[in-house]
Sequence to fold (669 residues):
Amino acid sequence: MSQTLLDKVWEAHTVRKLPNGATQLLIGTHLIHEVTSPQAFGMLRDLGLKVLYPHRTFATVDHIVPTDERVEPFSDELADAMIKALRKNCADNGITFFDLSTGKQGIVHIVGPEQGITQPGTTIACGDSHTSTHGAFGAIAFGIGTSQVRDVLATQTMALHKPKVRRIEVDGKLSPGVYAKDVILHIIRKLGVNGGLGFAYEYAGSTFDAFTQEERMTVCNMSIEGGARVGYVNPDATTFEYLKGRAYSPKGAHWDAAVARWKATASDANANYDDIVRYKAGEISPTVTWGINPGQAIFIDEKVPFPNELPEKDRATAEEALAHMNLKSGAPIKGTKVDVAFLGSCTNGRLSDLQEVARHIKGRKVRNGVKAIVVPGSQGVASVAESMGLAEIFRGAGFEWRGAGCSMCLGMNPDKLVGEQLCASSSNRNFKGRQGSPTGRTVLMSPLMVAAAAVTGEIADAREVFGVN
Amino acid sequence: MALEKITQVAGRGVYVPGDDLDTDRIIPARFMKCITFDGLGEFAFYDARAFAKEAGEVHPLDDARFQGASILLSGSNFGCGSSREHAPQALYRFGIRAIVAESFAEIFFGNSITLGMPCVVAKGADIRAIAKIIESDPQATLTLDLNERKISIADTDFPVEIAPHAHEALVTGRWDAIADLLEGVDAVRTRAASLPYMAA
Fold:
């Protein structure tokens, strides 16, 4: 036995070889949302096709939902048309929809795990590139385009080519104030935004063994930012503990059988990898981006780089990034003025993210002139956080406490940057225009670093601001 | 569903320089508020084009000399970021029928092939050489030959690469997998029955 988890899951889900050489791969779990699915349902109607396994597709609404005034009809007519289209498509096809009224709505990558739908050894697809998040459970999860959403609806399969596997080992204990977000930003900085092209990333090592399920999700979430469509962690006791008792988790005797199966899907000790890289947790500091892609990152105490010090291929993009970000080479990133602080997203909108920040900002105040918003990743996260008193702590500190959704991660709802505002953001992408203003600027960082920026009004070292050591 | 066998794409070229041109750049998220892909073409590279206009410059896609171009040339990691099929759909609806770049992000690549829009890889120096020829003669026809694995302009050939599976899919007219996938539905049911989590 020398198989990786990817090998095993791929084998268990292979339907057949297609005439063009691709594998017809069974997709056991399909997640959909309002942005990338309506056209797929339209294609099904045009082709006269039905949904093959309606009970294996789950829907929620996340990208376009307002996070403040959530009464329908939405003031944005297009957004209103999108939620209505999803609601109708789900009703017409017998698909479970975690709608706004259910108390279970949220960002699709937070809802899946929370409901126990995301399980080890399964295949998952969703028309969203951050579907890699679900790999934290030892699932093989693909972000897909709309034509593939159509394919999965009609056939519960996709035509795919098996990726290579790169094992990324991180060993040791993270220093205080350093988080899973810093680990993945560091990995992307080292391997590049296209370093993962053609690879699935298997994250391993003692750092990952010690991570909670939510920390593993943060890392797997951003695999795609490193060019790897798929990222996963082998399932273990932490995974099973997280899943036990959730709505869609197996129950009773089925639970024990499932755990036995799940354990067997983990990569074998002597599995063959196409590549292995290793990092030490102790070498990672709080990391922030300075540019317009997630690989353009530095430690908080480093200076903004000079393009001519970078590899030649990265220089033109670096010049463009500096111009867009209005940052100076050689200057510290620390002290850069911040206009907006955004805490949320499928990367860092989970309960543990909010708990960690709340613990430190209790009794502190958001700096005058900074707009700070907390957007829980799901209604489930919001309701637990509220019952624990976290919402009160955030409000007391001057944060706006919002309803669940993708919000300012990509500005498809009313939560957008304005003009050249600079946002300290716990999200996953700092692309030009990403947060809703074409000239807006995004600096990616961990949730606690977002809080430090909110409190000081500038990019700051959370360890100093909150006395973390 | 018999699809066109795509072995050649011929047309004029347009060069949009830059590496890591992400899908937010190709189609900003605010234009994804739609329930059909119709009309997306006009929003391709919307913000980049608007920036150029504000700066008193002309974005290549708005340059009168390159109007009607159907082969897009660019840098490395083209189409990185989001899985939105809106990105290749917008380019296709803008009139693009093939893309030549130094490398492509995986999801964008797959989405494009599914639309029958070949994405081929060429060396950066060759792409810049082609761009130079286009700049001096915007009317020159580029011919991409998938079987010969070359792109030609003004009697000069440049080598290109395309992933073998994508090549096979395009030249055999199987670039949209749905017909093949549907043929396997009985096998799908058998496979699904072997997986406990697929049970209703």
Q: What stands out?
A: Chain A has a mean pLDDT of 97. The radius of gyration of chain A is 21 Å. The CA atoms of residues 384 and 430 of chain A lie 29 Å apart.
